[in-house]
Amino acid sequence: MQRDSRFDxxxxxxxxxxxxxxxxxxxLRTIGLSLLVRWIYPVxxxxxxxxxxxxxDSFGASVIALADVLTLLYSVVYPVLLERTVAxxxxxxxxxxxxxxxxxxxxxxxxxxxxxxxxxNGTPFxxxxxxxxxxxxxxxxxxDGCHISEKTLVTIGDDCTLNAGCKIQCHSQEDSTFKSxxxxxxAGCTLGVGALVHYGVTMGDGAVLAPDSFLMxxxxxxxxxxxGGNPAREIRDDHYQPA
Length: 243
Fold this sequence. Notes:
By secondary structure, the protein is an alpha/beta fold.
């Protein structure tokens, strides 16, 4: 495979040193912003807890229950609003650029401030949280702990099963180059425990990816296919003989 040399001018010399200095300054601002938003979250939760404790004598256990509900809602809404604000409430677009380009610096900031609604794992409300974050997701999707890095690049059909620890990763960094693309998971698909779906992938309706499998970039799984392994390949029934 021929190596892409279009970004070689950013890998050495004065231009690299200039870009690194600018990136380091950008990273420092990102660190400060990240610490700030993470500080705000426990402060608000602490205020809710202290307020409910102060009001307990007047209103009893009901105020504690109300505080718990508000804390749960805040734990979902706050990170969702934060991530969507960073992205200016717009969908991401597939990218191909050097890691020394300002777009990639921004994308790194997006990752550091991205939301992962883990508190809703295994509940019917996880799909709603994904929709709020920009995932195009269907109905009756069971999600027991899937991680999605770039939500607005992902489409998931109806009746899918996303098992614990699986991941849909719409990006890669290769040879100082950042790449991202859409991922489409068809209706009725299953992602096994710990399975990884890489960028540019399309899974046909009813396709099954086995646990701990790596579906590599650009793959297209046919409808109702069963793939597994690293890299994932079709699993044929004749590979498994009855005892």
